[in-house]
Amino acid sequence: MFLDVTAKRNPNLINTAFQLHRDGSIYPNTYVLDMDAIRYNARIIKKEADKYNINLYMMTKQIGRNPEVAKAISESGINKVVAVDPWEALTLGKAGLKIGNVGHLVQIPSHMIKEILVLKPEIITVFTIEKAAEISKEAKKLGIKQDIALKIIDDDDLIYEGQAGGFKVGDLLESAKKINELEGVSIVGVTAFPCFLYDEQTKEIEKTRNINTLLKGAKILKESLGIDVKQINFPSANSTFSIGLIKENGGNYGEPGHAFTGTTPIHAKKMEGEIPSMVYVSEISHCYKNKAYTYGGGFYRRGHVEKAMVGKSFNEGKNNILDAETISAENIDYHGVLNIEDKKAEVGDTVIYSFRTQIFVTRSEVALVEGIQEGNINLLGIYDSLGRKIR
């Protein structure tokens, strides 16, 4: 999905990935991250956000909730994280990162609430009155009042499978009244997901109907209950290409994630904005019936893997691009499959992919590298897919 644009905009990253694999510094099934490019991306994202007075939380699940990458991003001034689940919040909070938003997309389990509250999150997103009550109870024990955001939904909204839940607009007023009676929480925000998506037809980022639902909810809270809605959070596809749309559509918060590695869908089409800064490295395991099998573990079912570069060096690989077969979500990704046809593939050859991923759900390793653009390669360390340093 991103191989062509990465070869054009960040060829040094691919060259470095070849070198690290050829000399044995990294194994196959490793994502290589260009830390300097990520820092650059964070800076231009923050600059765009400041232009429109938009507040941002960084999402890190796609890069394996890695605390060192999060710290690098925080240098830009985007210094609070949004945790996709409470385990991510604990990983990053214990590493010293400031916690921005927890509970969206995954609610905090009952017996983890106290542990999360101790991290002092700026806001917690809730889907139900019951969860707000649980948070209130634990907050009172700690002598604090926790700010919360309500996830707002409606019947016609776009909701991904497995992500349903929230306060329906028609029931919002009564639900909010009951939550307002809780002493340990305070409603200060609203959110929904996804609020923006890349449109293959228009080739631009477009708002979803979820935004209209979200704004209806904010209006009800303000006008009927007098709630000061400080956060109107529009997550999904947040990048330099869409931050202005947050402001244009009435929001004031966003949650960029893939933008930091230049791997949102729009980045596959643009030669500007955030720089692609992540590739996936594998190796030819074996060949069979004109197909090359690569070591897997890091393929993601929504990755849109199209092709890979194969060879013993970047110069060799850029002239030897093999088409990839789609990997069925029904099977474990022990291997990736490439069609050899009139190309070359030998056992032990390096394979470079660049596709959309979510590292935290893979079995991959993650290599953090500095100095790529200057040719002064510094491998900072190898981490697992959940942000723990391996070596």
From TrEMBL:
Cofactor(s) recorded in Swiss-Prot or TrEMBL: pyridoxal 5'-phosphate
Transmembrane segments: none
GO molecular function, one term: pyridoxal phosphate binding
Keywords, in A-Z order: Isomerase, Pyridoxal phosphate
Coiled coil residues, start to end: none
Protein name as it appears in the record: YhfX family PLP-dependent enzyme
GO CC, any one term: cytosol
Lineage: Bacteria, Bacillati, Bacillota, Tissierellia, Tissierellales
InterPro entries found in the cross-reference section: Ala_racemase, Ala_racemase_N, PLP-binding_barrel, YhfX-like_C
Residue span, Alanine racemase N-terminal domain: 34-265
Keyword Lyase applies: no
Keyword Isomerase attributed: yes
Native organism: Anaerosalibacter bizertensis
